[in-house]
Amino acid sequence: MNIRFRSIENLYGNPHLNFYHMDALTEGGRSFDYYYVSRNDAEHIKVRTGELRAEGVVIYALLKDDPERILLIRQYRYPVGDHIYELPAGLIEAGETAEAAAIRELREETGYRFVPVHGDEAFSRPFYMGAGFTDEACVAVFGWVEGDGSLRSLEDTESIEVLTADKAELRRILREERVSQRMAYLCMNFLTASAEAPFAFIGA
């Protein structure tokens, strides 16, 4: 690791998020203030551990009986004061694998049963979310959904509409609606995939 800080202080924390101040160093050795957020406590922030560990999953799920449709959610997001279109996602609980978290989160958020598809490991490793302001990393899990979506179990803080989209509707959403970056980038693959080999882009 290339350590460029003198000290780190946790300015504020709760069970969900911590706000850190770093006495950071420029490449030339000058000290300056740097602030970022993390889901990790002070012992487990990545600048200290050096681990590339995923805190969350994003779920790329196609309908098993219609691979030309992808499962989406439209969720109210408090920081932007509006609903945005997203792929289902959630946090990985202690002791869970990314696939187990995806199965649980999809059932909770959408009511569907999720069956993971395995491809090239290059596409299923953790990637950083926004390293300018957080050390959070996420894993994409790909697969099929089955069922009727009737077994949802939402918290009262969640406002989620579950929907499926074909390629024409997805293009409209990407042109006209508010969309998460993760969804936009991953759905570029859906728009170019064939129904015969919908997961070919991950080598499955």
| Alpha plus pi helix count | 4
How many runs of DSSP E, i.e. beta strands? 11
Which secondary-structure class do the elements indicate?
A: alpha+beta
Percent strand: 35-45%
Report the uncertain regions.
Answer: none
Run of helices and strands: EEEHEEEEHEEEEHH
Helix proportion: 10-25%
Topology:
Elements: E1 5-13, E2 18-25, E3 31-38, H1 46-49, E4 56-63, E5 66-77, E6 82-86, E7 89-91, H2 98-110, E8 113-116, E9 127-128, E10 137-146, E11 160-165, H3 167-176, H4 181-192
Parallel strand pairs: 4-10
Antiparallel strand pairs: 1-2, 2-3, 4-5, 4-7, 5-6, 5-11, 8-10, 9-10
Helix pairs in contact: 3-4
Give a structural overview.
The chain has 204 residues and is of the alpha+beta class. The strands form two sheets. Strands 4, 5, 6, 7, 8, 9, 10 and 11 form an eight-stranded mixed sheet that branches. It has a three-stranded antiparallel sheet with strand order 1-2-3, with no helix packed on it. The chain is built from four helices and eleven strands; from the N terminus they run βββαββββαββββαα. It is 19% helix and 37% strand. α3 runs antiparallel to α4 (181-192).
Summarize, please.
Helices cover 19% and strands 37% of the residues.
Which features does this protein show?
3-stranded antiparallel beta sheet, 204 residues, 8-stranded mixed beta sheet, single chain, 19% helix, 4 helices, alpha+beta
